[in-house]
Amino acid sequence: MHCSTPDPRRTPRGTPEPHGGRCTCGIRTEGARARARVPPMIRFDNVGKRYPGGHEALAGVSFRLERGEMAFLTGHSGAGKSTLLRLIALIERPTRGQVLLDGENLGRVRRRRVPYVRRRMGIIFQDYRLLHERTVFDNVALPLVIEGHPHAEIARRVRAALDKVGLLGRERMLPVTLSGGEQQRVSIARAVVHKPPLLLADEPTGNLDPDLSREIMELFEQFHQVGVTVLIASHDLDLIRSMGHRVLRLRAGRLDAAGLPERVA
Amino acid sequence: MRRRPRQASWQPAPRAAQPPPRRPRGAGRAGSRLRRPLIYLQRHAQVFLGSLGRLSHTPLTSLMTATVIGIALALPGGLYLLLHNAEQLGGGWRGSARISLYLKRDVGEERARVLAAQLRGRPGVRQVTYISREQGLREFRAASGFGAALDALKTNPLPAVLVVQPALSGNGPQAVQGLLEALRKLPQVALAQFDMAWVRRLYALMALAQRGVAIMAAMLALAVLLVVGNTIRLDIQSQREQIEVTKLVGGTDAFIRRPFLYSGLWYGLTGGAIAWLLVRAALWLLQGPVQRLALLYHSDFTLASLGLGPSVALLAGGGLLGLLGSWLAVGRHLAKIEPR
After folding, report:
1. Could you read off the pLDDT of B262-275 as tens digits, one per residue?
2. CATH 3.40.50.800 at A67-92+110-264, yes or no
3. H-run or E-run covering A37
4. In whole angstroms, how far apart are CA A189 and each of A69, A137, A206?
5. Are B177 and B277 in a shared domain?
6. Closest residue by Cα to residue B339 from A10, A85, A149, A44
7. Are residues B179 and B247 in the same domain?
8. Could you tell me if A73 and A47 are in contact, meaning their C-beta atoms sit under 8 angstroms apart?
9. Are B168 and B209 part of one and the same domain?
10. d(CA B323, nearest CA chain A) in Å
11. pLDDT at B171
């Protein structure tokens, strides 16, 4: 017997773990095994995507993004950044390999279940994709309306989200009357209003000047600070370098480098 | 509710839904059980009114669509009413449908009156009139002009007659035929006569007209389906962007479908209401000439209007067709729109 720990498989639930779940002897106690079982937020296993025309957008892509991690996805235009994000959001399906979201194989998600998977993430686009005939309030409220929350709760949470992105007081305005940076903030508020554990952003600063871009990135950083997993596709290398998070670099559909920005970007 | 610190409130929601906090027994339990269906109903009511609001943004276009539906519904509705009125008029003619029972010579006046009273109590008989032999002779003499010839006869050659008016309510010629057979078997009756041919023709004509209206109604119902379907298809196309965004943030097909279905329902209901108005207007325009015509025939016939039942049927039929039309359009076109 290497230590006094009894066979962990026999430890009844609820008994205090003698090593606080961390045993130097290398045998995993129940708590440690539970932690090891926490799946990464996103896992790609040898994923390939070939479009009907024959264009191969992704090939043999494998990586993990842990819960609560923030990472950048970079590469030239057409390197497959958008395709990778679209696979996570189930806008596209891979032609090879597996994509796992929080341990769930997305390849097994049927069409009817797709909306419920999308509710577990917030997606932000380069062109904002706001509804131009609806007010800022209605735009941000959309995910909550879809989920069927009571009216009072929707109003409270929309205001909280708008407050978070610094747009409180603009609820009644139409998106077209806002600047580009403000419109992107509205789309971020819409992406976070239902408190998803994952944020995906596809070139969120692509249409913005450097100062606004930095503000938007800081907003993402704040969400990362409170535990949201964030994956941002961007080719703004200077900005990425200054943020100091892990970088995944795509080149012609393959992941050719991953690591901290000093090494990769 | 106590406000939590701002930062903490932005933590992501846990994946597995937390069990709701325990409440003391009995406190607000009914409320929580009612909450979900109430929210569901509330959402439906919102979409129901919201889709009306959206239609009222383009009042002219919406009204034109509804009017097309209204006209399509008004045609069978109006024809139905015309048919209904024709039946009423036919009922008046049917009053003249008579069975003449020529009684045997040995049946005296007393027995004839007793028989008439018996027949009046029969189902399917509306009225029985007794014409005595003398009365018959008088009428014949006055009407025929054979007065001199009749004088030459020593006895009255005419039999006593019972004129039976059958009640032609629902059953049509068959019932009358049955009555005729029964009357023929009476021992006092020498001969029973009834001209069935024109009653049969009347009923055949009515059946033909009814079938014609039904065929027309079916074709126009199809037209309503297509009109609503096409309008909803255009609606879907013009809201492509919105549908895509809704799908991207997790909107289910049912959620996206709902406003379009309610739009279709509104088109149908409005169309039904317009059809009702059109039929009423047409009736109002026809009422005067019809009354003048009836007066010339010394009749007090007036056009019957749409009753409560047909009015409700017109509205409900419109709504149903609208819903069905939009359902078909939504089924065909919504699935094709996927986010880019």
Report:
1. 999 999 999 999 99
2. no
3. helix A30-37
4. 20, 10, 18
5. no
6. A85
7. no
8. no
9. no
10. 22
11. 54
Q: Choose among B245, B252, B339: nearest Cβ to A131.
A: B245
| pLDDT given at position A10 | 43
List the single residue in B10, B13, B340 with the smallest CB-CB distance to A223.
B10
Contact B271, B72 (CB under 8 A): yes
Partners of B40 on chain A (C-beta within 8 Å) are 148
Tally the residues of chain B. 340
CB contact under 8 A, B251 and A115: yes
By the CB < 8 Å criterion, does A67 face chain B?
A: no
Output the pLDDT for position B13. Answer: 63
pLDDT of residue A12: 43
Angle between helices B29-57 and B59-94 (to 10 degrees): 100
Q: Which residues of B fall within a CB distance of 8 Å from A117?
A: 250
Residues of B in contact with A131 (CB under 8 A): 241-242, 245
Looking at the domain assignment, is residue B185 inside a domain? yes
Nearest residue of B to residue A128 by CA position? B245
For residue A41, the surrounding DSSP H or E stretch is none
Under-50 pLDDT residues of chain A: 1-26, 28
Q: What is the pTM of this model?
A: 0.71
pLDDT tens-digit readout, B302-338: 788 888 888 999 999 999 999 999 999 998 898 888 8
- The answer, yes or no, to whether residue B133 has pLDDT greater than 80, is yes
- Say which of A123, A160, A196 has its CB closest to residue B248: A123
Q: For residue range B179-210, what is the model confidence (pLDDT) as tens digits?
A: 888 888 888 888 888 766 776 777 788 889 88
Kindly state whether A228 is in contact with chain B, defined as any CB-CB distance less than 8 angstroms.
yes
The mean of the pLDDT values for chain B is 81
Give the pLDDT mean for B61-88: 89
Q: Does A186 touch chain B (CB under 8 A)?
A: no
Contact A36, A28 (CB under 8 A): yes
Residues of A in contact with B339 (CB under 8 A): 91
Q: Which residues on B lie below 8 Å from A91 (Cβ)?
A: 248, 338-340
Output the six-digit token pair for A118: 């999308």
